[in-house]
Amino acid sequence: MSTHVLAAVLTRLKLLTGAKTDAELSRKLSISPQTLSSWKVRDSIPYSLCIDLARQHGCSLDWLLLGAAAPASSALDDADWEYDMLTRLRTLSPADRQAILLLIQDKQRIQQLEQQLSALAGSANG
């Protein structure tokens, strides 16, 4: 498992358990912070633990280990979605984050122009 893959799995474990920090995750998994740290050093998480957590939380192993599909449990609420997005953004390079920011700004500008166009069309018809 590469460090990037391990970080993604740990992020999904945090989402699944509602943990925001490594310390909180270790408490929720009933392991010591040293155990979590050793997983990071070894670049490995016990597979049996992943199976147990997937069963407990009703998600697929594909999602937990690979991020392949959305969790089977209820949809993420706004706070979880935002946390997930911020966590994912932090794993990207500065150049990728800048590219995403530019796309967001473009989308917001398009929305603003659409609103102005709609207002103009409404005043022309009235």
TrEMBL record:
PROSITE patterns with a match to the protein in the record: HTH_CROC1 (PS50943)
Positions of transmembrane segments: none
Record InterPro entries: Cro/C1-type_HTH, Lambda_DNA-bd_dom_sf, Phage_CI_N
HTH cro/C1-type domain residues: 23-64
Coiled coil regions, renumbered to chain: none
Name recorded for this polypeptide: Helix-turn-helix domain containing protein
Species per Swiss-Prot/TrEMBL record: Pseudomonas oryzicola
Biological classification of the source: Bacteria, Pseudomonadati, Pseudomonadota, Gammaproteobacteria, Pseudomonadales
